[in-house]
Design a protein that fits this description.
By secondary structure, the chain is α/β, with parallel strands linked by helices. It contains eight helices and 13 strands. Helix 7 packs antiparallel against helix 8.
């Protein structure tokens, strides 16, 4: 018998800014999750967080479960899903840090000197000097006390190589950044082809017929983890952004039209940055 629990780290200020952002207001990073899939005595963590402080909080939370952490699986190669794992991996030195092979190069790129300089400018004094990069998983399954958890490459989300973890026993999918829950989706740098591919990735999750979808970025006020609602809303958001970009002449126009449709979504900075990458 297995179960899952979700750790939610709230929005946090950071030093990044984009040209359309109001400099009188501090930009925030999206609220982020880490998911613990638990057996009787062992557990698997899906995704870590960004900062060392978050990593220490996550370690304390895992320890409270009383479970032995055997594996940490990273859904995709963005820094905010594994840079904060240092304290967890120190606390559980036997835990293996893994992902699917296609994700490893993207994750490795995040620790390039130039990228590390950017991350340190965003979160000065808050991230590990030497984040550990996940290694390629042998095969495409994680084993937890006799249960197989399926690691599936679904393709495009806010990065080209994205994966999810399917937990058949729980009718659940841990979706990383393929779906979002109550937060503006990270569409910065996207184009029509990437947005169409992202919708296909959401369709791939739907094809697993989950009841529950745990996302990588969830607003603390989100009502639930209902798969149908989350997948429908994520698809609609990508589709609306695509249509609005096509019909808009400026970043300001994109932001205004998206906010008219999504006035309550969290993390306005994410939308602002996305709009700035689409139009002058």
């Amino acid at each position: 018998m297995i179960g899952l629990r979700v750790f939610l780290s709230p929005y946090k200020p950071f030093n990044g800014a984009t040209r359309s952002w109001d400099p009188s207001t501090r930009a925030t990073w999206p609220a982020s999750t880490a998911t613990l899939i638990e057996g009787e005595s062992d557990a698997i963590l899906v995704d870590g967080l960004m900062t060392l402080a978050e990593g220490n909080e996550l370690l304390a939370w895992i320890r409270q479960s009383g479970k032995r952490l055997s594996t940490v699986y990273v859904t995709h190669g963005h820094a905010d899903h594994f840079f904060g794992l240092g304290p967890v991996l120190t606390g559980f030195p036997d835990a293996q840090l893994v992902t699917l092979a296609d994700v490893v190069p993207t994750a490795a790129d995040q620790i390039d000197a130039k990228r590390m300089a950017v991350w340190n400018s965003y979160f000065p004094g808050q991230i590990s000097e030497h984040p550990q990069v996940p290694v390629a998983l042998a095969g495409a399954e994680l084993q937890l006390e006799g249960q197989s958890l399926k690691c599936l490459a679904v393709g495009q989300s806010d990065v080209e190589h994205s994966t999810v973890v399917h937990v058949p026993e729980l009718d659940a999918v841990v979706a990383g950044d393929v779906a979002y829950n109550g937060i503006h989706m990270w569409l910065a740098g996207s184009d029509p082809a990437k947005r169409a591919a992202w919708i296909e990735s959401l369709n791939a999750i739907e094809g697993l017929h989950p009841v529950t979808v745990i996302v990588g970025h969830k607003d603390p006020a989100a009502p639930d983890d209902d798969a149908t609602r989350i997948l429908d809303e994520s698809r609609q958001y990508v589709s609306d952004f695509d249509a609005i970009v096509e019909a808009s002449d400026s970043a300001a126009e994109i932001i205004a039209k998206m906010l008219a449709k999504y006035p309550d979504r969290g993390n306005l900075y994410t939308l602002t940055y996305a709009a700035d990458t689409q139009r002058p």
